Every structure is written in structure tokens, then in C-alpha cells.
Amino acid sequence: GAAKNEGNAVRFFNSEMQVEVTRRTRIETALRKALRQGSLNFHLQSQVDESGRIFGMEALLRWHDPELGQVAPSDFIPVAETCGLIVPLGEWVIERACEMLASWQSDPLMSTLTLAINISPRQFHNERFVDHAVKCLEKNQIDATKLELEVTEGLLIENVAATVDKMDRLRQLGIRFSLDDFGTGYASLGYLKRLPLTQLKIDQSFVRDLLVDANDEAIVRTILALGHSLNLRVLAEGVETDLQAERLREMGCRFFQGYFFSRPQPEPNWREQLLLTQGSDDKPGVRPADDH
Ligand code: C2E
Ligand code: MG
Ligand code: MG
Ligand code: MG
């Protein structure tokens, strides 16, 4: 009867919860160890302009655990956010990014590139965040305008005035801010003008069906118009086909990122690839091998 069904539903729910708790605990323990042992790394994905020229890279965390195998950021970043590991993890990301930018300064192939890193809300709101970032910039003597922080609308759930103030302080040092996954969050448009942003990234969910879904096309047009009228650069992410790139270009988009241009790949591959394409007419985005 009803009571029995209810009982089953509760047991089922509990066992699913149990599986989820176990999964999170395993990820947390393994991630703590990975941080200690230095077994995390980045892959870089190019960001290109309308002529196909690579102007920047986005650093994306990659983690291979001996027992869990390859773990995707979408699986471990949320865990790191809830258990607090995002703070040391995020500090490691900034340190590595600054070291990478420093190593690029003397390399004519890499020295013009910007490097974008992703910053989680909890990491940003940590009281040490600004001081730590400043320390990393100084220690590595890098040009702060080459460092771009990709933040999301989730940042604005907490004290907006304090958030804007923190962003302003970093922006004054030269650091750029890009609003990632734009259109998927719930920030009011009023906040947009208060944030010291340089770029909006159109979320890949709107790019995916751009050619077949009139609603997605309308949303992309709206984001382009909004961004451009606020004097922001607008970059489309998740561009997978030439037709998507072409349509985006027709719509006035001038900055792109996605598998059509390149998969995320280890830094040394990029040095080789940039060396090969430099000076030739080839589009520097010929599809390299998958990273997974
Ligand atoms: P994101 O910052 O929006 O990064 C874009 C994601 O889309 C990346 O997934 C990238 O590999 C993937 N991608 C790029 N081009 C395409 C494409 O053409 N098609 C499709 N389907 N996907 C594409 P990834 O590397 O798995 O990262 C997922 C998310 O994890 C990132 O989303 C970001 O929010 C987070 N993340 C990655 N690295 C870090 C990090 O160092 N710190 C923090 N806090 N978050 C990170
Ligand atoms: Mg990003
Ligand atoms: Mg994104
Ligand atoms: Mg994302």
C-alpha cells in the first residue's frame, strides 16, 4: 500500500544520498592528497579573434587520480567549494598561473598572450584573496594586465558592495575580469554596470543550438548588444563548428573559444603549435588531439 511505497521511496532516497556522500568524501580525500603531492595540472585552451589569431589562453584544471582515474573539474570543483579546499586549490592555481606568465615573458611566441583562470565565489570571498594575488604578481614580476580572472554571477550572492570593492582593487592593479557562463546565473543586469569587467563570455549552452534554436539566437544577439553597449568585449565559448563560428561572426561576435579552434591541451603542445603556425597563413586552430 501507500505506506510501503513511501518506505521504499525513503530508503531509495537515503541510499542515493549515501552514495553521493561517499563519492564526495572520496573526492575530498584524494584531492587533499593531490594538492599535497602536486599531481594537478592545467590544460590550456586558446582564445581567438575574428581573424583566427590566438590572443589568449584559458587555464583549465586537470586531475588524474591513481584510483579515481581522470576526474573532471565539474566533479571536483563543487566538492572543493563545499569542503573549503577551494582556497588552497585556488591559491595554487594563481601561483602556477603567475609562474607561467613569468615564464612566457621572455618567449616571443607566448609573451603577448593573456592567461585566464577561473575563480570560484568562495575562493574570491576568502579574506586572503586580494593579498595573495598581489603577492603572486609581485613575486613573479609579471604584467598584471596579462592576467584575467574569470568569475561567475554566483559571486554576487554575497555582499555586492564588498565584492565590487575587491574587484576594483584588483582591476586598479591591471588585472582583467571576465564574466564567465554569462546568461546562466541570476544576477540582475543592474549589477553589470557596477562591476569592473572587461569581457562577457556567452555561455556555451546558448552557442550549442544557435543554428537551430531561435531562442538561443535571440539570447546571443541580446548578450552581444548588451556587452557592446557597455563597452565590453564579448567572447563566445563552446564554439564547435565552422557554421557556429560563421553565424557568430555575422552577428557581430569577434572573440571565440571552443573545440572548433582548439581542444584544451598541455602547455608544451602550444609552444610547438605556435611555432609551426607562426608566419604561415594557416589558421592557428587546426584541431589537435583530444585531451581526455
Ligand atoms: P568554464 O570556465 O566555463 O570552462 C569551459 C569548459 O568547457 C571547460 O570544461 C572546457 O574544456 C569546455 N569546453 C571548451 N570548449 C568547448 C566546446 O567547444 N564544447 C564543449 N562541449 N565544451 C568545451 P572543463 O575543463 O571540464 O571545466 C569545467 C568547469 O570547471 C569550467 O567551466 C570552470 O567553471 C571549472 N574550472 C576549471 N578549471 C578551474 C580552476 O582552475 N578553478 C576553478 N575555480 N574552476 C575551474
Ligand atoms: Mg572559464
Ligand atoms: Mg564558461
Ligand atoms: Mg562553467
UniProtKB/TrEMBL annotation:
<feature type="domain" description="EAL">
    <location>
        <begin position="24"/>
        <end position="278"/>
    </location>
</feature>
<protein>
    <recommendedName>
        <fullName>Diguanylate cyclase</fullName>
    </recommendedName>
</protein>
